[in-house]
Amino acid sequence: MPVSKKKTAKNNSILAKELYNYFGFDTFKGDQEAIIESILNKKDTFVIMPTGGGKSLCYQLPALMSEGVAIIVSPLIALMKNQVDLIRSYNNVDQVAHFLNSSLTRAQQKQVKADLVSGITKMLYVAPETLTKKDNIDFFKDIQISFFAVDEAHCISEWGHDFRPEYRKLRGIIDEINPNIPIIALTATATPKVQDDIVKNLTLNNPNIFISSFNRTNLYYEIQPKGKKEQTLRNLVKFINTMKNKSGIIYTLNRKTTEELADTLKANGIKAVAYHAGFESADRAKRQDMFLMEEVDVIVATIAFGMGIDKPDVRFVIHYNIPKSIENYYQETGRAGRDGLEGKCILYYAHTDVQKMEHLMRDKPLSEREMGAQLITETVSYVESGVCRRKLLLHYFGEEYTQENCGQCDNCLHPKEKIEVKDSVKIVLDTIQQLDERFSINYIVDVILGKKNPQIATFRHNKLACYGSGLIMEMDDNFWQSLIRQMMLEGMIRKDIEEYGIIKINPKGEKFLKKPYSIKVVLNHVFNEDGNEEEIETGNANGVFDEQLFAMLKETRKEVAKEKNLPPFVVFLENSLEDMALNYPTTMEELERIQGVSKAKALKFGRKFITLIAQYVADHQIEKPDDFIMKSVVNKSGMKVFIIQNIDKKIPLDTIAKNKGLSINEILNEIETIVASGTKLNLDYIIDQEIDENDQDDIYDYFSNFKDDNLDAVFEEFKDSGMSEEHIQLMRIKFLSEHGN
Ligand SMILES: [Zn+2]
Question: Which CATH architecture has domain 547-619?
C-alpha cells in the first residue's frame, strides 16, 4: 500500500508541532527550541547567535503562541517592513504583525492601534524612538503584552559596532509600561564586554543565556599587504577574475573610493557598481537591486551597505581598507557564504589606512576617540598576527578554538615558524604581578623594555625589579605586544571587563609562574610603511618591469624611428615601453591597452613591438599575468577630459595642475600621454608665453633631426639659452602633437 505523501512534523514535541503549523518547518535549528521554551516560561532570555542561525524565529514563534502582543524593538525602520512582510507571508491574517514608526500616516497609526486593542496582532515592531513617546507609553500600559524582544541588542553598548544611545533608555521605558513583562535580548555579535553591557543595561533578571558558536567554518580569511595603489588594484582585478560571475562585496573607507574602484573594475570588464550613503535613496535602492538581481557581480560600498542585505551566495568580501573594529570585520565578512558554501574574505592592509582612520576621528569627543583607537589597535593586532585567524576571531567573541590548524586561513595554510618563549612569558607574568595587575598592554611593554615616561616616573615603577627586565631578549615592542596577545589566547592572562584594557593573570598563568614550562609562539607579520610585507616575493607581480625586455624594446624603437625618420619618442614614449615590459602585450588589442598607445598608433608602429614581445615571451617561457592587462585606470578618462577642455580654454598650466592637485611635472606627463595616444593639443598659448620665438624654432628643428632617445642630451644642448626641462618637454609635446599622429 502506498503511504500518504502528506508531510508531517517529524519531531513530536508540542513546540515542533507549533513550528510546523506556523512556519512549515520540521525541525528547530541549534538552541531555538530551548530559547522558545525559556520565553514561554516567562524568563528573561539572552540570545547570542550569528547571522543566519535563525534568530528571529526565537521570538516569532512564542509571540504567535502567547496571549497578547510581543513588542519587538528594532533599530532600522527599513528592516521592520521586510520583517513584517515576511511574517504576513506565513499567515493568512495580515494584522498578525504590524510596525509602528514615523513612516506611517496618522490614519495608519490609528488602524495599528485599533488592531492592538482588539488583540488580533501578535507582533509589533517599533523603533526605540517610537517607544520613548509619552502617548505611546500610555497606550502600551493599557494593552496586554506577552514580552519585549530587544533585537540587535548590541546597539546598547558603546563597545558594540553600532551604538544607538536611545537603546540605553529602554529599561526605563519598559519599567514604566510594566516591569513584570519578560525581556528577550538578541544580538548577532557580541564580545564579552558587549554582552556584559547588555545584561547590565537591560537589567535582565537572572536570564537564561544562549550562546551559539561564532565559527563560520566555510569562510576563508586572508590578509594581503597593500602596496602601491596601482599594484593593489592589479591584485584586486586579478583576484576577482578568478571568481568569474560570482557575487562579491568590496568595502572601502570613503565614498570617493567606492566610485573610483567601481570604475576601475568596469574598465577591466568586471560588472561592478558603487554604493554609498551619498546617493539618493531611489538610486541606492536601484544599485542594491542590481546586485541582488545579479545584473552586477560586484558592489563596491562604504559600510552603509549590508544592513539587512541577505544575499546567500556572496562568494567574497574584500576589505580595501582596514575595518574600524574586529566586530565590524566579523559582521562584514559574515555576509559571505551565508548558504554555507564558499566565502573568501580578503583584507588589504597598509598602516597608512590606520592613520587615515585616526584622522577621521579627530573631531570626535575624547572618550570616543580613545575607544576608537583601542578598537583599531585590536584590529591591527589581528591583521599582523601570525596566529590562526579563526582562533583570533573566536577568542575575540569569548570562544575558545582548540583545533591546531583550521585549514581555512592564510596563517594556517602558510604557517610561520614558532619560537620558544618560556623565559619571555615569565618576564611578562612577573611584570604584571609586580604592577599589581592594574595596567594595560602598552604600559606593561614600556616597563618591560625600561622605557622612560612620566607615568612610570610618577608611580616609581622604574624602581621595580621588572623594569627593563626584557631588554636581555633583544626584542622590540612588536614582539612583546604580540606575545602578550598570544598569552591571552592561551588563557594565561585576560583583559578585565570592568576596567577595559587592564591585564589580569588567570589561574593558568599562576600555574605557569609556579612551574614554568616550554611554550612556543609565532612571530607577527611585519609590514613596512608602504604596507608591503617585508619578505615579499620579487618579480612581475610587484609591478617591476622587465629590464631586459625594456632594453630590447628601446632598440626596436630606435630602428622604427629611423625607418620612419622620426625622433624615437614620437614612436612610443618611454613609459609606454615600461608598461609593455610589464604586461607583455602580444596582440594589437593588448597593445592598445598600454598607456599612451592609441589604436592608430598601435597600427602605425606596433607590429615590430608585439612580434618582439611574443618571441621574448616564448624564449623565456614567461607566464603573462593571467593573460590580462590592467587597463590603466582611476579617473584617467575624467582627468583626460578635464585637461583637454582646460587647454582648449587656454587656462594657464599651473592653474590646471593646481586644480587637479598635481605638480607641473606630473601634469606635463599627463598631457604627453594624452598627445601620444593620438589627441592633438595646441599648447602654443603656453609656449609663446614661456619661450622666446627663436628658441622655439631652434628646439623644433633640433627635434626634427633627433635620432637619439636621450632627452638629457637635448637639455644639455639648450641649457645655456636659459631653457628649463619643462620648456624642453613642452616643445617635445608640441612636436609630438604635430608629427606623431
Ligand atoms: Zn586558521
Answer: Orthogonal Bundle (1.10)
